[in-house]
Amino acid sequence: MKLIGAGSRPGQPLVSHDRILTVPNMLTVIRFLGVPLFVWLVLAERQYGWGVVVLVVMGGTDWVDGYVARRFDQASRLGRVLDPLSDRIALIAVAITLVIAEVAPWWLLAVIVIPDAVLTATSLLFFRWHPDLPVSIIGKLRTAALLIGTPLLLLAKAISDAPNPLTYVAWTVIGLGVAGHLIAAYNYFWAIVRKHHELHRPIDSATTTGHSATGNQPR
After folding, report:
1. In the 8-state DSSP scheme, what is residue 161?
2. Contact indicator for 154, 52 with CB cutoff of 8 Å
3. What backbone phi and psi angles, to 5 degrees, belong to 17?
4. End-to-end CA distance of the chain
5. What is the total count of domains within the chain?
6. Closest to 94 in 3D by CA, of 83, 81, 109, 75
7. What's CA 99's distance to the chain center, in Å?
8. Which domain holds residue 58?
9. Which backbone phi and psi does 76 adopt, to 5 degrees?
10. Is residue 47 part of a domain?
C-alpha cells in the first residue's frame, strides 16, 4: 500500500464536497484535541511516554483521514482548509512544548514558526484568508518527517537525559523534516503569489477589441 496518496481511485478525480460532518473532518477535530492533551502530558505531568503515544495517534489520524477522504469520496472544502491548519497548529504547539521542556533547542521553533508566519501574512494580504491550494508532496513528506522525528526525540528523552542512539536518529529525521519545511514554504509562497496574479490579471485590451470586432462581423 502506498503511503502518499493512499486510497486514491484510479481514473476518478478527487472532488471536494460542501459536507461538514464527514469522517475525515471528525478525525481532524480529534487531532486538534490531541494538541492540548500533549502539552499537558509533557509540561504538567512530565509523562514523555504518554506524550509519544499522543503524537503517534495524531500522526496516524493525519494519514487515515486522507485515506478515507480519497477512498470513500469524503473530501470536503472544509477539510482542505482544516487538514493543513491542524498540521500547522500541531507542529508549532509540539515545537513550543519541546522547547519549554528543554527537549529541543529554540531554533527548531524559529525555523518552523517564521516560514508559517510569512505564509499566513501573505495569505491574509492577498486573499484575506486561505488561498485554498492543494498540499504538495513535499509538504506531506515534511509533515510526516516532523511527526515521526518529534516523538522519537521525546522517546529518547524518556529513555535517558543523555544523548543516545535514538537521539541521533530522531535529529536525522527532524533535519529532513526541517529541510522539507523550508522547501515547501518557498514553493507555497510562490504558489500564493501566482494564484493572486492569475485572479487579478488585467484583460488584454487588444484581445478584447479583437473579440468585439469579431463579434460585430456578420455571420
Report:
1. S
2. yes
3. -95, 175
4. 58
5. 1
6. 109
7. 21
8. 23-201
9. -135, 160
10. yes
Which of these ranges, 42-51, 126-135, 147-156, 160-169, has the smallest mean pLDDT?
126-135
d(CA 20, CA 58): 20
Q: What 3-state class would DSSP assign to 76?
A: strand
Closest CA to 191 of 113, 126, 140, 145: 126
Query: Whole-angstrom Cα distance, residue 148 to residue 55?
Result: 8
Phi and psi angles of residue 120, each rounded to the nearest 5 degrees, phi first: -65, -45
Distance CA 4, CA 32 (A): 22
The CATH number assigned to the domain holding 66 equals: 1.20.120.1760
Q: What confidence tier does 27 reach under pLDDT thresholds 50, 70, 90? A: very high
Going from the C-alpha of 40 to that of each of 23, 46, 116, 123, the distances in angstroms are: 26, 8, 24, 31
Asked whether the beta carbons of 20 and 77 are under 8 A apart, the reply is: no
Chain centroid, CA 110 distance in Å: 17
Distance CA 192, CA 125 (A): 10
| Sequence-distant (≥ 6) Cβ neighbours of residue 142 within 8 angstroms | 177, 180, 181, 183, 184
Alpha helices by DSSP H, listed for 130-164, are 137-159
Q: Would residue 83 count as lying in a domain?
A: yes
Q: Is the pLDDT of residue 177 over 80?
A: yes
Q: Does the residue 71 lie in any domain?
A: yes
214 in a domain, yes or no? Answer: no
Question: What pLDDT was estimated at residue 11?
Answer: 57
The sign of the CA dihedral 44, 59, 187, 85 is negative
Calpha distance 198→97 (Å, rounded): 40
The gap from C-alpha 112 to its chain's centroid, in whole angstroms, comes to 12
